[in-house]
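Reminder to self: tokens first, then the designed residues, so the page reads top to bottom the way the pipeline ran.
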């Protein structure tokens, strides 16, 4: 990881509300993302984790400007890109890429692999030394695919190989930051570790920064330098990887960790099984949004929203009035395992 301290990505108060209409009348808004603050340094990987519907994809799509933020700001390499228009975004598109969750839907079935990977180069008018074909074949090799398969079509590849094609396409413009939206969750568990390892090697070799989106903490465990845990449109805890996994302070982080099979001791709380559904982002609970499922909730939690603040002046910040203390222990675990969802 780079030693530079200036963040590559600086996000402040990032918000996305989707208006809901009944006929012509506004009927409120889905508060999908509600005021996120975080930085990503060059070469750093930030994991963004939370249950389905908490706003991860919406956040990722705003970061690469596929979605227009409602409010807040996104700075990339010192430039405010929050509302940058298409022309201004073009040079940024090279530095900022996204890998999608579904390796089947994200590749055009009528195009050859060579054409798919070459597309970002062609769209941006880039003619690399040695020509486009040579560059595409280098990229295929880089992601562990046979460069001779240049003329094959997506359906001739397995799910894991298709995700590698998506990764090669994302790398074509030598980006500085990649948003990876659940890049392995559509793959067999046996293939997940291979793709995670590939991303980790690329991250190290190319000094890439990642925002790596996942719905559980097991997947990002061996990949991320820092982790942000989201609940109902908010970050409830953010910190260095080891702090999040060994000294989680937010009850929700503890519950997510509890779903990882080899977390052996959770301290006095023991194993935690979340009950109840995630409330609707149309009308989130007052005060702390987690309070309807939190076993520690008290009156104050309903009236006062907890701020995301460092509890001990360190790097770890937690949005909770009554944070947990103490360390939990866990086994080494495989590189990528899928934890069963906690709250079904
Ligand atoms: N275009 C849209 N219009 C209205 N609501 C939307 C829209 N896109 C997303 N939402 C809502 O915003 C919330 C956050 O959705 P998002 O897809 O960001 O969640 P997620 O964390 O990525 O979930 P998953 O783990 O299922 O992918 C959800 O309640 C979703 O229904
Ligand atoms: S603020 Fe209250 S309800 Fe929210 S996580 Fe902390 S203890 Fe639970
Ligand atoms: Mg999603």
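Designed residues (344 positions):
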């Amino acid at each position: 990881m780079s030693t530079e301290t200036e963040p590559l990505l600086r996000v402040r108060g990032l918000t996305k509300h989707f208006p809901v209409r009944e006929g012509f009348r506004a009927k409120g808004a889905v508060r999908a993302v509600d005021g996120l603050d975080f930085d990503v340094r060059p070469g750093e990987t930030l994991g963004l984790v939370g249950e389905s519907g908490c706003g991860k994809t919406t956040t990722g799509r705003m970061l690469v400007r596929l979605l227009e933020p409602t409010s807040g700001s996104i700075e990339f390499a010192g430039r405010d890109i929050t509302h940058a228009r298409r022309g201004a975004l073009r040079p940024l598109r090279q530095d900022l890429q996204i890998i999608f969750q579904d390796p089947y839907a994200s590749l055009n079935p009528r195009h050859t692999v060579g054409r798919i990977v070459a597309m970002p180069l062609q769209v941006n008018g880039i003619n690399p030394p040695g020509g486009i074909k040579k560059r595409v074949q280098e990229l295929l090799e880089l992601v562990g695919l046979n460069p001779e398969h240049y003329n094959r079509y997506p359906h001739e590849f397995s799910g894991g190989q298709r995700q590698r094609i998506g990764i090669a396409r994302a790398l074509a413009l030598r980006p500085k930051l990649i948003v990876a939206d659940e890049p392995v969750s559509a793959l067999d568990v046996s293939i997940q570790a291979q793709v995670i390892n590939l991303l980790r090697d690329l991250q190290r070799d190319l000094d890439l920064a990642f925002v790596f989106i996942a719905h559980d903490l097991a997947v990002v465990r061996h990949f991320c330098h820092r982790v942000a845990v989201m609940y109902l449109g908010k970050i409830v805890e953010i910190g260095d990887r080891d702090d999040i996994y060994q000294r989680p302070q937010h009850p929700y982080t503890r519950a997510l960790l509890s779903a990882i099979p080899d977390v052996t001791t959770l301290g006095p709380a023991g194993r935690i099984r979340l009950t109840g559904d995630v409330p609707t982002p149309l009308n989130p609970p007052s005060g702390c949004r987690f309070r309807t499922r939190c076993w520690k909730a008290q009156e104050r939690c309903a009236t006062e929203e907890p701020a995301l603040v460092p509890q001990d002046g360190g790097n770890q910040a937690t949005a909770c009035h009554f944070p947990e203390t103490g360390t939990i222990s866990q086994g080494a675990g495989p590189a990528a395992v899928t934890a069963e969802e906690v709250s079904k």
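The chain has one domain: 9-318.
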